[in-house]
Amino acid sequence: MNLYEITQDQLSIISFLEENGGELTPEVQEALTITQDAFEKKAEAYSYLILKMEAESDMIAAEIKRLQGLKKSKDNSSERLRDALSVAMMAFGREDNKGIKRFETPTLKLSTRKSESVQIIDEKAIPDSYMVVKKEISKTLIKEAINQGIQVDGAQIITKQSVQIK
Prior knowledge:
Blueprint (H helix, E strand, L loop, with lengths): L2 H17 L6 H67 L1 E2 L5 E4 L4 E3 L27 H9 L19
Antiparallel strand pairs: 1-2, 2-3
Helix pairs in contact: 1-2
């Protein structure tokens, strides 16, 4: 029996009690006890499962962080190697009629190419006309406004119940 079924049984018993003026018969008492015992066992099992899943989630997050660090290290290393190879290509590569440095091995073909990119030297000196502003909803500001009695179209405050496991 899962928690939903236990809850439904509990609600059925309560409804039965209300219909019969609150009379607690031995059968109803036994059903309540069984339901309570089942709930306690299920609630404990669910709680341990939740704690286990949360611990696994934390381990996965730590592994993701470790792998991201490893990825960054590999990216940096490959970029340094690429830069060193580029310098060597400029010095030792054979230039074709288009001014492109080339080098070939039996399995690889290397060549240089020109590209352009913008380098920001002083971000504060860039005029506002070149700035892009990202629009983002602030739930904190919306909550404060609603609590002050201001109507915010498209938003409302909801109250939630959550379970704490300690």
